[in-house]
Write a structure and sequence with these properties.
17 strands; five-stranded antiparallel β-sheet; alpha+beta; globular
Length: about 280
């Protein structure tokens, strides 16, 4: 068994200048299979356990309700064979107790912590990379030789907490209230294909090079070229898109670093990104 990754050569433009020739880069992203719906998962679990699909569905629904109820009560809930799930948040710190308020919370989070067995399984699974050039031709296949490092969600949370604390301003000399300045990061947007796309935050258009706060919710809407299935990646990670009447939508939280969003609306001549398209 191996995880599949594709590296596609794409033109990336860092400005909206029509004279900017852009550069070609191989961008890697997971080559995901179609999403498995709940009915298929229940059917497979019923076959492996020897119970009926009706019984399995009842157990599945009951477990889901228990996990949801306990997680929203503040418990760390075990997901058998997988890990634990719990409630978390991102928030800024303040020096004085009178400054503590809910507006300091930037996002609420659901944190999944995998078991060591699951992390070991992922670390030991090979990764196969298939490379395609700008014309769609297969040019190379690579089998992974990386260290198999698996991201630690607990460590990531601690790092983000430290970054939030370090990003705050010192107290003003003219007042006793602590003041904080959120760090902002540039989002470069590159669009390929003849379809149209829009990128927004809170209903407002986002232009390439815009400065966004970490965890800002960025929304994408894509109308691809006829017969094409679009893709979108941020820093090489694919964004899940949902299709409704030919329009594909998705969203992502702005990473805590300068980032590149690449939107591919399908085959055809490259077109500059237009936030009002």
């Amino acid at each position: 068994m191996a995880l599949k990754v594709k590296a596609v050569e794409r033109k990336i433009k860092f400005t909206k200048d029509e004279n900017d020739p852009g550069v070609y880069r191989y961008v890697m992203q997971p080559d995901l299979y179609i999403a498995l719906n709940q009915a298929k998962v229940i059917r497979e679990a019923a076959l492996r356990s020897g119970v009926s699909q009706g019984v399995m569905k009842a157990c599945w629904d009951a477990a889901g309700e228990v996990i949801k109820a306990w997680a929203t009560e503040g418990h760390s809930v075990a997901l058998p064979g997988l890990g634990t799930m719990r409630f978390g948040l991102r928030a800024k710190s303040v020096a004085k107790v009178e400054d503590v308020k809910t507006s300091l919370i930037s996002t609420r989070r659901i944190i999944f912590t995998p078991t060591q067995d699951l992390k070991d399984e992922l670390a030991n699974t090979a990764i196969q990379i298939t490379c395609y050039d700008r014309n769609g031709n297969l040019v190379k296949r690579v089998t992974s030789a990386d260290a198999g490092t698996v991201e630690d969600p607990e460590g990531d949370e601690n790092t983000n907490t430290e970054n939030d604390q370090n990003s705050q301003n010192s107290q003003s000399e003219q007042g006793n209230q602590s003041q904080q300045t959120a760090s902002t990061f540039a989002l470069t947007i590159s669009k390929t294909g003849i379809g149209s796309a829009s990128v927004t935050k809170d209903g407002n258009a986002v232009t390439s090079g815009a400065s966004l706060n970490e965890d800002d919710e960025v929304e994408i809407s894509i109308t691809p070229a006829e017969g094409q299935v679009p893709t979108a990646t941020v820093n090489g990670s694919e964004i899940e898109l949902t299709e409704d009447n030919g329009v594909y939508t998705g969203s992502f939280a702005m990473p805590g670093q300068a980032s590149t969003l690449i939107i591919n609306t399908g085959e055809g001549e490259d077109d500059d990104y237009d936030p009002n398209a």
